[in-house]
Design brief:
Number of strands: 15
Number of helices: 15
Largest sheet: 10 strands, mixed
Order of helices and strands: EHEEEEEEEEEHEEHEEEHHHHHHHHHHHH
Oligomer: single chain
Mean pLDDT: 92
Strand content: 15-25%
Radius of gyration: 30 Å
Number of domains: 3
Shape: elongated
């Protein structure tokens, strides 16, 4: 039986979060009432002329620089001609053979191994409108009619195209997560897949393992989450293997991913570049950035996610998985502020990656929307380190702080969570436990040291969790 390997490339579309659209002054905002953020330019009225959004161009160059791409000395906007209801001009202003960024790479980690995915291009275009298919299922073939919302038409859209360097659905998912994290760090887009500001089309083919030639490529559309991308690629690879093993010919086509069915289906034959009749847009001049602009944009790049994770591992002694979580763009400022307030770096990271992450998931909120602050976590770390509270008590404190936003010390006092460490107060409880457990006491005295854990547990139970376990064990050993 032939062993096949997948050949995967991703085309990711990133809506830039600029204030206005790409070629007009309309507001670029998600969620407005249909067809309210429109004007004659983005609706393609005769006689109107596009004016490029400088901020969008510079953000695209930053994306290219962050990916190690070359910002080309001369790039052009082209007209991509096709006819669809969400295209008011009946062409899309895009880029063809002279994109803003060329080449580059993105390193991704899968199962502890770093893989380098090459970049083909980074180009800038305008988004299309949005079609709502009315019917019981919302699918095109079963729709009774369609409605067009042109608010999105003309929004600046960056297309990041990888080389076909990925070999598994898991690797493609890791690439998409890394790209999204990089875009968040650059602060060029909110990259919300559920709102369509980050969209991904996947190209996949199969070939016998070790063969240099590519197989027949299939494009998959309609994937609205990273999980969907991985599921769709897994299904499509299995479908193609089954077809090849039956001797069936694969055709180059675009397929639709159905999230509910967990399957792809034929959407249309795959277009070639010549089908779009690209030609330079006569209303737009070439982009020719000078070296000073490129260096300014390069100097404005923030610390990128991979470098930040490496720094967290090196400077804070974090494990790679923990560094990936607390080193994310959304969490890193919170974590570093916590450490800056005196918290032990590893303790703070473990509490964030464990209990705090669990509370956020349960409440279905992000860290930015939670009541807990770096000061809360730093105070919790200090109370735990100086023995004021136990680990069990700290969990209760964090849960109460998360719910109320009250200071950690206040919660400890109100809930009576302070540990009993004073020998005079703890000694009486220890004496009671010794008196009430003659069997385990005798076992300990005859050399069964492991039974000390049972006795410490008895002290913790009698003290309702308030006893300092280390002090309780010391007192037990002294008395026995």
């Amino acid at each position: 039986m032939t062993t096949y390997e997948a050949v995967i490339g991703l085309e990711c579309h990133v809506e830039l979060s600029t204030r206005t659209k790409m070629f007009c002054g309309c507001v670029n905002a998600f969620g407005a009432p249909p067809n309210t953020n429109v004007c004659p330019v983005c609706l393609g009225h005769p006689g109107t002329l596009p004016v490029p959004n400088r901020e969008a161009v510079e953000r695209t160059m930053k994306i290219a620089l962050a990916l190690g791409s070359e910002v080309t000395a001369h790039s052009l906007f082209h007209r991509k001609n096709y006819f669809y209801p969400d295209m008011p001009k009946n062409y899309q202003i895009s880029q063809y053979d002279l994109p803003i960024g060329a080449g580059g790479h993105l390193d991704v980690e899968v199962d502890g191994e770093v893989r380098r995915v090459g970049m083909n291009r980074v180009h800038l275009e305008e988004d299309t409108g949005k079609t709502a298919h009315a019917g019981t299922t919302g699918r095109i073939a079963e729709a009774e009619y369609a409605l067009e919302d042109f608010n999105r038409a003309g929004v600046p859209l960056v297309e990041v195209v990888s080389e076909p360097d990925m070999r598994s659905p898991a690797e493609a998912a890791a690439y998409l997560r890394e790209l999204r994290e990089l875009l968040q760090a650059l602060d060029v887009s909110d990259v919300r897949m559920e709102e369509g500001s980050l969209r991904c089309d996947a190209n996949v083919s199969l070939r016998p393992a070790g063969h240099p030639e590519y197989g027949t490529k299939v494009e998959i559309k309609n994937m609205n989450s990273i999980r969907s991308v991985e599921r769709a690629l897994t299904y499509e690879a299995e479908r193609q293997v089954a077809a090849l093993e039956k001797g069936e010919a694969l055709v180059q086509e675009t397929r639709h991913w159905d999230e509910d069915r967990g399957a792809t289906s034929t959407l249309r034959s795959k277009e070639e570049a010549f089908d779009y009749r690209y030609f330079p847009d006569p209303d737009l001049v070439p982009l020719e950035p000078d070296a000073a602009l490129i260096e300014r944009l390069r100097s404005e790049l923030p610390e990128l996610p991979a470098a930040r994770r490496q720094r967290f591992e090196r400077d804070y002694g974090l494990e790679p998985a923990t560094a990936r979580l607390v080193g994310s763009t959304a969490w890193a400022p919170f974590y570093e502020e916590t450490v800056g307030l005196g918290a032990d770096p590893r303790t703070a990271a473990n509490w964030m990656a464990g209990d705090l992450a669990g509370l956020l998931n349960e409440a279905k909120v992000g860290l930015a929307g939670a009541k807990v602050t770096p000061q809360h976590l730093a105070d919790l770390s200090r109370l735990l380190a100086d023995g004021t509270i136990s680990t069990a008590g700290a969990k209760q404190v964090l849960a109460e702080v998360f719910a109320t936003g009250n200071p950690a010390a206040q919660v400890v006092g109100e809930k009576g969570l302070a540990q009993i460490s004073d020998e005079s107060a703890l000694g009486g409880i220890v004496d009671q436990v010794i008196a009430e457990n003659p069997g385990p006491v005798e076992q300990f005295r005859t050399g069964k040291d492991g039974v000390i854990g049972f006795l410490v547990g008895a002290v913790m139970k009698k003290s309702k969790g308030a006893a300092n376990p280390q002090e309780a064990q010391r007192l037990l050993r002294d008395r026995l």
